[in-house]
Fold each of these.
Amino acid sequence: MMINITFYYGFYNETLHHKSSGLNPFQLSVTTIWISHLVVGFLAGMTFSRKNFILTGFMGLFCAALITGTSFIYFGWRSDLITLEFLIPLVVGILPTMKLYDFLKNRINKNDESI
């Protein structure tokens, strides 16, 4: 969902960054889009684990930042997009986040066992 909102509200076209543009019906600024994506990412991440909800919340925040940033960079220079290209920011955001989460989770479990 984040990538669709990001694309719709203009990370690929400079004219959509203006709040007065008719193509931005909710008149969201780029800052508002970033903040909303990070908050939603944190909250969504928290739903994945009851025991480690703070860790998963920050992993969701990290993933949302990667997806939003990649969308901003990638769609900024593309004028025509095919549907498959919408998966690129998702892959760039999700795969590193999953690897980082596995690393941190294993590290936490090792510390719990040694106590």
Note: The chain has a mean pLDDT of 78.
Amino acid sequence: MFAFVVDRHVLVCAPGSHNHSQRPRRMQNKGAKLTLLGAVLVSSLTIWAVHFQQDQERENMYKGVLRDDERRREKMRQREQELEESRKKRELYERVQAVERAAD
């Protein structure tokens, strides 16, 4: 069954009634009109909700990437700080204790 609007009237074509000499008859039943309207509204809302959910998921995934980048930067800062501390300790130990360098 196909339904379409012409001049603010909902028209219906039943399957198998594609006789080109006949005009589609008007949908007389208010219940049928309301059902069609409800189906269109529910479909539209469903499509909108799916797109909204996809946008939210995409945004959350992007925030995850940003968090991972920040974690990596923090880890690099910590490693650089530990390396600097290690160099200072080595320098201090070398001043206190004589260290022989290995011959190349």
Note: The chain has a mean pLDDT of 84.
